[in-house]
Write a structure and sequence with these properties.
2 copies of one chain form a homodimer. Chain A is of the alpha/beta class. In chain A, 42% of the residues lie in helices and 20% in strands. The first copy, chain A, has 2 domains: 236 residues, Aldehyde Dehydrogenase, Chain A, domain 1 (3-Layer(aba) Sandwich), CATH 3.40.605.10; 148 residues, Aldehyde Dehydrogenase, Chain A, domain 2.
Amino acid sequence: MSILTDPDTAVETPQHRLARAKEASRSIARLTSGEKERALEAIARTIEENASRIISANATDIARGRENGIGEALIDRLSLDEKRVAALASAVRDVAALPDPIGQVLGGHRMPNGVALEQVRVPFGVVGAIYEARPNVTVDIAALALRAGNAVVLRGGSAALDSNTVLVELMRSALKGAGVDPEAVQSVDDFGRDGAKAMMHGRGFIDVLVPRGSAALIETVVTESTVPVIETGAGVVHIVLDESAPAEWARDIVVNAKVQRPSVCNAVETVLVLREAAPTLVPVVVGALQDQGVSVHGDDTVAGLVSDVIPATEEDWSTEYLSLDVSMKVVDTLDDALAHIRRYSTGHTESIITTDSRNAERFLAEVDSAVVMANASTRFTDGAEFGFGAEVGISTQKLHTRGPMGVSELTSTKWLARGTGQTRG
Amino acid sequence: MSILTDPDTAVETPQHRLARAKEASRSIARLTSGEKERALEAIARTIEENASRIISANATDIARGRENGIGEALIDRLSLDEKRVAALASAVRDVAALPDPIGQVLGGHRMPNGVALEQVRVPFGVVGAIYEARPNVTVDIAALALRAGNAVVLRGGSAALDSNTVLVELMRSALKGAGVDPEAVQSVDDFGRDGAKAMMHGRGFIDVLVPRGSAALIETVVTESTVPVIETGAGVVHIVLDESAPAEWARDIVVNAKVQRPSVCNAVETVLVLREAAPTLVPVVVGALQDQGVSVHGDDTVAGLVSDVIPATEEDWSTEYLSLDVSMKVVDTLDDALAHIRRYSTGHTESIITTDSRNAERFLAEVDSAVVMANASTRFTDGAEFGFGAEVGISTQKLHTRGPMGVSELTSTKWLARGTGQTRG
């Protein structure tokens, strides 16, 4: 493209990378399923063969992180060892094994005048992702985008700069080796904030932009972008326990949803207990949570039933703790529980524990969240658990897709019309 | 909602209307298909019974328009007579007759642990529309939104203020008569620009916002909104004529695509002719266009083949004339035609006229537009022609939906998960 060779613009800008991704997206869109599988296999193999280089770059990130005092939880999310590098490669192979959505015919019919209409699945073109910390996201999103025939522009967190730089370089060299245009994978990490800015305003170059990370990051991307965005993530997740909830299910599901991995968006933050069930269930559930080191922020009723409860404030009901904290409230009726969820939920995931099918079906029908469950842990809201291989993120908006986003969610559609000279009367 | 009765906020704001639409969306989402059909029939009947009131309000708009010198084309688009009012009601009945998309199960499977997953179609919640001039859009969009179980917030053009005010009032009173919450239909027209601003920034209240109108209006909504937007409309539409194109098809389709209704987005703006076909096709097609009063803006080759051609400038190739003007260019190869389209198309609709199946299939595969045609008039890109009853607009973005938007395009999905106590390992 002339923009890239024009001597007046010889200094490379983030826009050049966007333009190269756009240009590359044309050839990526036309790859066969087999060609895409081979390209992804080349990426997996290259990652495995360069494990030590990746780990060494990651060590630089870790050292810088410790200098900056970023805290052990973040250090852990950031760290790559041999096992985690092997998991990166394995995720790419999982994605390669997924069915190719491109070319799928979604429907069609003949118009009364004989024109044959067909709606087919096509790649988006260029997928952008702005994300934080974990370097596996770099590989996951690139693999998913490529599987769906897209080019990808990545902007990772500065904490993982060295790891991401090596991963992108390896993916590009793997593509080249597989005869695929390496410009299909771009990073704008080296441009800092300007890179993110160029993506958010890259109309005509970025077909969809996915922010993945903190609530603040997502808010910035959603409010600043002029390109279409899929909002992901924040999860003030609720579990409701009704009178018919078996104590074992209530205990096991609440503990699992809070403790198994407290730092992620599908972890439960608020438990609502129907008043009639409170005397039986609150002691069992709170006891099990406290045994696991969870701090319970409870209302007065909860505090009257068990000890060591931190008094819940209004702020607790809208807090995504992402830690070993949970809020708990006793409500009079299912209506009250639904009203509480309507008011405080971020529309990510809610679950009810009940054996009363009327309550279960009402909850499933009326709760307006991406994933609504009965008798299952909210931790199941996850691309891998849903069978999508990996995930780009979890959409909490209603446009385009809702819930875990896999390969199919990185596609668009187009209409084909085949006529024999028809005109409109 | 307390916001509406709080004495401190007794002055009504656009936000109050958004909040009332949001509140109403809950009951609208739960209406059965039959209840929605009866509500729409009540709207159709109320419109018919109040035709004279609508026409009289419209006369005020027309008079104001003439005073402001808005031009006869716009006056025509704005005008409602008995026939057009009858057409409004009839469009509502067409929408009522469409199948209800809500509750449709789109797919599902059991997770290995036995949790049953199901993806179902649900309403968006609150659909917002910002549009111009034609008052029929007020009724079309409200009907489509209601059919899909949504509440709707409307912001029409100031030119149609009186007509729109009466239409919204009639729809609300029809809903009330049918036992449906009238707050499901809101207008913020009386707030002027503040109404549009509130919608564009109505996060948590507006689930999707559709701009429909001029390129400037769409640009403003896309760049200013923090709520999810579906970009519609602008159409620099191309028709390609190759060596195998039958002269009759070429002539009839180009003339139809340009002349049948030049002011709309699916009208052709640029005709690309393969060099080998130019000597035969250019005179036939240009002659037929000029017979219909069309001004042809042609390149040198076109000008050498026929008379009365206006020399085309670079600007012509990216101009959406929306008038009896068309640009025409001779290109050496299909590759050149595809490159021209890539550069200048707005991704709305393109058509190739050919009997060579290789060219047709290549064009259908490689052109990246919402609707890609072979041997049919671009005027067919239309919700009614596609069998959608009416249309909200034509999406030219890739997120969520592409091409004409009908009832199904005003829905989202959610995942339901039914378990028996499962936790994540």
